[in-house]
Each structure stands twice: as structure tokens, then as C-alpha cells.
Amino acid sequence: MIDFNKIEVSEKEKNILNILDEIAKAAEISTSEIAKATGLSYPTISRVLKILKSKGMVLKTGEEETNIGRRPEKVSLNKGFGCLIHLMIKENAIIGYLSDLKGEIIYKTHKNFLGKITLNSLLENILAVYQSLTGSGRVQNRKFMAVSVSIPGIVNEQERKVFRLPSAFGFREASLFDDIQGLLKVPVIIYNSSMLMAMGQYIKGSASPENLVFINSDESFGIGAGIVMEGKLLRGANNFAGEIGYIYYSPENFNDTASDAIGMLEKAAGLRSLYERITEMYLTGQSRILNSLVPDSKEINISVIEKAARMGDREVERVLDEILKIWAIAIINIYLTINPQTVVIGGAVSSENTYILDKLESLVIKALFFKPHIILNDLGELAEVIGGLHLLMNFVFNTIILNEAIKEE
Length: 409
Prior knowledge:
With 409 residues, this protein is α/β, with parallel strands linked by helices. Helices cover 41% and strands 21% of the residues. It has a 5-stranded mixed beta sheet with strand order 6-5-4-7-11, sandwiched between helices. The chain has a 5-stranded mixed beta sheet with strand order 14-13-12-15-16, with helices on both faces. The protein has a 3-stranded antiparallel beta sheet with strand order 1-3-2.
């Protein structure tokens, strides 16, 4: 968790960080286990633990069972030393999560948007959610250490900007790092939401290989992907690795005069396009089965569409198959380019949508030399939260806590 290459440290400071790192990675750990993991002597470990306990970073939790001499003590990270906050930006709401220092969620809240998302309205709602999470004495005597934000669009960490935002936003580019940090007065990191879903799937999903791609099919924001290679998030040279919504899948992609639509797999095969086509069928009475399933076209969603196709609605099945063929093209190209162990389909598509999974598998396997491993996301919204809090913990440990641990009293 602690990256020792971040700063130059003395031997004494390195010992502190080595011991703190072992404590942070475990729920509970004994001094004998620390000695085995670090190679440090018991007197050195004892001295460092005294420092960390005096700073409130580490707590004694008990003693190790042994019949030989003095029993080594057990310790754990003081999860109450600080708090973390993760904010998810959606089309019509901001969802906020408060967690302890180990990423365990304490409280959740949200605030809905009204109308188009402007920069001012976004910042106002972020502040409201932050105040809701930090207020009411919910976390007495804890430091609010940092905030992570997940947002659709391309995040440039070097320039501290977010751009290529979906049409739901009333602005196209913003210095959101500085805007949010100036507003909340705490350190802020921002990530693309699909990337965080990939990291969350890697950490706690049912299938967690070191090489996976998470395809996020969002009802409002289109299609994106997060890529984890050898256990690390892949961002690419310009921070937009995984922007599969812009994939070119046909020569016709070059014919659109609007520059934002060039490529744009998501324009032809995003869920918004699917819903528009199916809603038109519903309104014109082309789909008897679909009309019997929903009394109101507003209730049309991916599960209803899938159910109609399962029940033999040929028109619904035809449209859904056209969309899934374009998805299959993206998945085939992903496999042939980076060859992940697993492709995870998530976002609006959940573990219940097995019809979609079966169709995609049958299409993709025709083009590959092996059977692909394609699964459905089983974490839901938590994939994004888990990924966000994980990267936020890494950030906090490698900046705030690292410096606090080695700071002289």
C-alpha cells in the first residue's frame, strides 16, 4: 500500500513505514508476524509501535497466544484515525459514501439534480453532499483526510482537468480538481467511473484475475471501459484507455460531420439508442409482447427488453441483436488487442441479464481462437465505490499518512 519510492527517507523512517504498511494490510497482526514480514528486530518494532500508537495511528488489540516467555502484542490500524469520502457523479444525482480508513462504509447519502448539470450546480450539489456526510457529529474526533470523485469523461491528472463529458453536462471541460478542492478544502482525486468499476471488480468481484476489462454500459452516459493489467489500472499515455464508446467499427463512422460523433460506437449501440428504438416500436404498436409487459413506455429498460426477446418478440429480438453485434465487435477487438483473462459486462446490465450474456458469448466465440471468459457484474454500484475507496486509500497512505507517520513530534 505504501510506495517507498514517493519520497526519500532515512533508515529510521523506512522502518516506520515498513511496519505501518504491514499493519495497514492486515485486519490484525502480531509483533512476531511483523518481524517475520519485515526482518526487523523486536526492539525496533516495539520502538516504532510506541511512536505509531502515540500518534493515534495504531491500536493494541491483544496479545499473541504462546507458552514461551513474554507474549507478543497484537495491533491493528486505527480505522478511526481518519475518514474518507467517495462521490459518484450521475446524470441526475450525486451519491456520497463516507468510510473509515480501511474503506468500510459508515454512511451513504445522495442529492438529486434538477435540470441540466452546469458547473455551478455540480459544485453546489457536491458541497451539499459533502456537508451531509461530514455533519451531525457522525464522525467525532476524526480527520477528513481526502475525497475521491468518479465521473464519466476523460480525466487528465497531469493537467488536473476533466473533459469529453457526456451531453448531460452543460459544460465540456473543467478544472474540476482545483474547483472541488478549493470548495471542500481537502485533497481531491478524480477518476473515470468505468476505470473505478474495473478496479472494484478486480478487488472484490466473483472473478478477479489480474487482467480484466470492465465494460460499463450506462443508460445515460453511453459505453466506456476500465482496464486492469497485472493488477494495476491501465490509463494509457493520454488517460483515455478504455474509451470504447469512440471505437470505429464501420467505414460509415468517417461520414458524420459532427466531430464528437466520429467513431462513436456508443451513438449507434449505446443503451440510449436501444431505448429510443424500442420505445418507438412500443409507441407505434409494433411489439405486442412488449406492450403487454409495460403499461407505460417510461418503464422500458434493459431487463424488460430482454424479457420480451426471451418471450419470442421477434422485432425486439432483431433490434437487440443488432446492438449486441456491435458490442461483440468491441469485445472481439479488446480480446485481440490486449487479451484479458476476463471481460465483465456491467453498468445497467446486471447479473440477471443472462440472455445478453449468452448472445454476446455466441457472437464473440465465432471470431476468436479460444473460448472467451465473459461474465456479468455481480457487485452493482459497489464496484465503483470499492474501486474509488481503494485508490483513495492508496493516495491517502502515500501522501497524508506517510508524512504524518515520519513527522517528528
